[in-house]
Amino acid sequence: MNKDILKNDEKAVYALRSLFRQYGYLPFKMSKFEEYDLYVKNKDFLVSDKVITFSDTNGKLMALKPDVTLSIIKNGEDEPGCKQKVYYNENVYRVSGSTHQFKELMQAGVECIGDIDCYDTVEVISLAAKSLELISPDYVLEICHLGIIEALLDACTDDSRLKSEMTSLIAEKNVHDLKKLCADNGIAESASDDLCRLAGLYGDMNSVIERLIPLCTTDAAKAALDELCELKSHLTSAGLDKKIRFDFSVVNDMNYYNGTVFCGFVSGICESVLAGGRYDRLLTRMGRRAGAIGFAIYLDLLEELDRVSTENDVDVLILYDESDIAEAHACANALLAEGKSVSVQKAIPKKLRYGSMTDLRKGAK
What we know:
365 residues
């Protein structure tokens, strides 16, 4: 297959598959649907709680899969000392953020489940960075450690509802409303100030670490900071530090996620094309004793790169009248013989990008 004619999402599938296999991740293939019960029990983990359902021939309620991770967890087994390393390229069925209607979306990703340690965290984040680079060299990967956020929230309150509100404001970098929320709920000014400083933390790994040190005063916060420092050291050694930022607005659902979480962006697309992190708590909720880390790449968003690409759709556009069919054929065949791509039209299509134009129409000269 000539990869030069593939779209960005199609090119990414080939490149990512090779990358994941190189790191020992094996393909995972699943059915288009699962029992609806799997999703309704874990709806908070899903990007959207809207799911397409249908009744099977035996009356059981089924759903077109809106997610792959849940199926991987459901079908895996815990093996002491071992890790299940899989990658996938699957279509999922969920509400599109752009159209707000159900859409079949292409998604790729990796999951590492089992006896997880620092090595696996570094490997998966490195794979995330390499995956973004395959899509575009102009990328950035943003990382957060939820353990630090949790420690500072615990210092403020033990009210889970209030913590949830605070977390949402941190994700929005809304320091003004966060400070007001703390004041309205009698949070000590020192704890409120620390939380507000954390919400605004963003930048290169070294500068953020320096600003984190005075905020991490409890044992839990210090332990999380130590993990982040170790991660920074390994990522710097791997030469990835120039493309990675620490950002404490990267917050996933803490009912499922823990530890390191991250998201990735590429130039030309306004939203994250990659998201992932540690999700040990999801494993626990599904009856597994293992740890887990992984990420997903939203390949449908790469259509944006096709639209902003500077590459032409064809090398040459030929315009002709019906009286010029023979000449149009001869002109097109000559260009095709030279290895050029050609579009033969009676008028110029609005969205067609072409390198040059040959106008054979009567009166065109």
